[in-house]
């Protein structure tokens, strides 16, 4: 991760997500790289959403959702979207929705395993992204606040 890569909360808070976002920023065509990453995730990780891959795919899907809805729950994501214009095609939206669904399912998912204690709150934070990808009306996302007191229970 370089100095230009911002720290994000919620779906953007892992090194894997930050690396995927940095890779997007370095590309000539953000939408093409997003499409490739999401296609690979949906194709290759349908049985189990693996560590690293799931974080990257979820972050990209959430950026697509934020572009669709105009809602970026944290300032760094908002600025990233301002610096990196891209158009969301119907295919990109469908891929992002499919990847989002795989990344947020409760079973066969690395994220749900490592975030067991905070999984319901994490999904609640992600709800505006889900709604945007599925074309549902929404309100801005609540700030995500993990419960660090329960870390030992993971």
UniProtKB/TrEMBL annotation:
<dbReference type="Pfam" id="PF14078">
    <property type="entry name" value="DUF4259"/>
</dbReference>
<dbReference type="InterPro" id="IPR025355">
    <property type="entry name" value="DUF4259"/>
</dbReference>
<protein>
    <recommendedName>
        <fullName>DUF4259 domain-containing protein</fullName>
    </recommendedName>
</protein>
